[in-house]
Amino acid sequence: MNPTQHNTIRFSTLLLPLVFYFLCLQYLLPVHNVFAETFFLSPEEYEWLQEHKDKLRIAPDPHYPPIEYYDEHGVHVGIAADYIDLIQQKLQVEFKFVRLKNFQEILEKARTHDIDIIASAIKTESREKFLDFTSPYIKIPNVIIVRKEDPRRLSLTDLKGMTGIVYQAGYTIGDVLMEKHGITHARPITDPAEALRDLSMGRINVIVGNIGVLSHYASREGIPNLRVAGDCDFDDVISFASRNDLSMINVILEKTLGQITAQEREEIKNRWIKMEAPGYFPHKRFWTGIFGIAGLSFAVLVLFYAWNRTLHRQVGEKTQELKKSEEKYRLIADNMADVIAIIDLDLKLVYVSPSIMNVNGYRVEEAVGKSIKSILTPESVNIALEYFEEEKILERDNNADPARTRVIELEQYKKSGETIWTQIAFSFLRDENGRPTGILTITRDITIHKEAEKQRKQLEIQLRHAQKMEAVGKLAGGVAHDFNNMLSIINGYAEMSLETLDPQDLSYRNFQEIRKAGLRSADLVRQLLAFARKQPIAPVLLDLNETVSNMLSMLQRLIGEDIALLWKPGKGIWQVKIDPSQVDQLLANLTVNSRDAITDVGKITIETANKTFDHQYCRMHTDFVEGQFVMLAVSDDG
Q1: In angstroms, what CA-CA distances link 169 with 64, 68, 233, 348?
Q2: How many whole angstroms separate alpha carbon 333 and alpha carbon 242?
Q3: In this model, does residue 634 exceed pLDDT 90?
Q4: Cα–Cα 20 to 30 A to 539, which of 45, 123, 410, 553?
């Protein structure tokens, strides 16, 4: 045999097993035909499925192992996940998976039609109001779990007199405990792993729940000191559930489940429920017969496995990087005080950050889809539209900066109907050709700053008014001082004339009138000097009622005609020793303050009364001193 023939025989010997291997693979691989896979559907059902196959949204329960959950790589796994894979293969569709936080949120999204299918649900009367259910695809019992040192055999009836009982929140077992057995003191838990740790450490006494879920978490957490103390006589009968306003989904799911064979169902159950699988030990002659094919298959599988593991690891790393990046930016958006929003060119919100709840009081789902015209006040709507028109004009100018940002202040409505002032920075979002596709806005609540600015302006007005009053006071003080000098001369000559004249003389009466007028003028000058704070302090005994009465006309001129001045003098009040000018100044300041507190029209009340503070009263009011006092009170309705 020459070398060429030898090489040909060796090549043929290697080639034949390889050809046989690939022929086996070709025979084993199914040839999919859409019509053949879905022949069990009626034409109407098939047509409906084709119209909606890219739109069907399914929400797995993230915390329901081994029924379904997300593994450490974020992959949806479990019994329900295997059933979903079979349904997708048989229907030739791919569901859109919606990842939610917990089963309560899944039910709420189904109620609001934000998802179409629930992968693992238990039928209840309340859920049947908005969901259709398929036939059950698995049943798992609910049990009572205790620590191993607790030797009791328990039933649900025994739990009525016990404390420290928890159950899995969001599942039907809670309704069974409360409604059928009256166990209302049990506490719902959302984290089975934490509850199992608490039970193991003795912080609680009993957990009631699905044995599949609890055994999964006990095994994962490595908790060895727990046992099943009793059965609840209630199984979690798990089905697919779908929106009852789209009944065709349930019909199609029911028919597809009917296409899943008993063998396929058993394989899924054994994969997740059985702890050990039976061994397989084929006969020696079998290995002798297929040794060549097995060796080749093993080599190919090892290469494929290594390549797949590398690819899986790279995909996992990239997925984790993307997940961390997404979580980081979501954390920033969720916790920042400013509201980030995207508005389309029709001025409707298409995205808004969760911080809108703190600013406007809207939930995200309530705000998305709203027009800015329903959020802004009418005046602010007009301002925003003017800016938008200006921006559209600038877009026609090729020299305009495409990255420009405008900042405006607009008044918005809160969900409660109140209004707030906001500062909004906005810029255009653009496509790859630079054309605007939407508007990015960042909104900040500046209501407090607006109020502070308003108060600052009011204080400026009050300051200017005080400065004017000070100037008027200085002018009045100067004029009153000069006038007082002239009055002193007039009153002096009137006194001397009265001393020299005979009281029966006609001129005597005239000089008396001159002296009275002079004294009244002196009182007026004293009030003006008190207002200007140029009168020296000279305390005297006086009747406070009389002093206030003499000031009323001047006080009325100070407060204006729109404000009524009400005087309530006390009866038999005691005399007080005080400088009359200080009383005048005190009344002037108090009435001016009351006038400033009144908007438009109002009323200022001045009243006097006798007050006595005894020892007992002063013990209760440490800032008071024992004795008898005269009260002077000024109040207003501003």
Answers
A1: 11, 16, 19, 38
A2: 33
A3: yes
A4: 553
Q: Are 517 and 466 in contact (CB under 8 A)?
A: no
Q: What is the pTM (predicted TM-score) of this model?
A: 0.37
Can you tell me whether residue 54 is helix, strand or coil?
coil
What token pair was written down for 529?
Answer: 């000097």
Q: What is the mean pLDDT of the chain?
A: 82
Spatial separation of the C-alpha atoms in residues 614 and 618, rounded to whole Å? 6
Q: What is the mean pLDDT of residues 167-173?
A: 80
| Greatest Cα-to-Cα distance within the chain, rounded to the nearest angstrom | 178
Environment class of residue 102 by beta-carbon count within 10 Å: exposed (0-12), middle (13-18) or buried (19+)? middle
Is residue 449 scored above 60 in pLDDT? yes
DSSP string over 85-141: HHHHHHHT--PEE---SSHHHHHHHHHTTS-SEEEEEE--TTGGGTEEE---SEEEE
pLDDT at 66 over 70: yes
Stated as kind and residue range, the H or E segment containing 258 is helix 247-259
Q: Give the DSSP letter of residue 171.
A: S
Cβ neighbors of 611 (< 8 A, separation 6 or more) are: 628, 629, 630, 631
Report the distance separating Cα 136 and Cα 120, nearest Å.
9
Handedness of CA 37, 39, 42, 47 (dihedral sign): positive
pLDDT at 236 over 90: no
Q: In a 10 Å sphere around its CB, with 0-12 CB exposed, 13-18 middle and 19+ buried, how is residue 355 labelled?
A: buried
Question: Are 460 and 479 within 8 A, CB to CB?
Answer: no
CA distance 253 to 6: 60
Phi, psi of 368 (to 5 degrees): -60, 130
Q: Minimal CA–CA distance to 554: which of 518, 579, 591? A: 591
**608 and 572 in contact (C-beta within 8 Å)?**
no
Contact 434/402 with Cβ under 8 angstroms?
yes
d(CA 263, CA 279): 18
- Pair 128, 239: CB distance under 8 Å: no
Any idea what the Cα angle at residue 270 is, between residues 266 and 271, rounded to 5°?
115
Asked if 590 and 548 touch (Cβ cutoff 8 Å), the reply is no
386 to 380, 382, 443: CA distances (angstroms): 10, 6, 18
d(C-alpha 528, C-alpha 538), whole Å: 16
Q: What is the pLDDT of residues 107-120, one digit of tens each?
A: 999 999 999 999 99
Residue 399, Ramachandran bin (φ over 0: left; ψ between -120 and 50: alpha; else beta): alpha
Share of the chain above pLDDT 90, in %: 31
Q: In this structure, what token pair is assigned to residue 577?
A: 């020793």
pLDDT in tens, 399-445: 778 888 889 999 999 988 899 999 999 888 988 888 888 999 999 88
**pLDDT, tens digit, 9 for 90 and up, residues 276-298:** 333 323 334 434 555 566 667 67
Tell me the two tokens of residue 242.
């779908």
Phi then psi for 505, rounded to 5 degrees? -70, 145
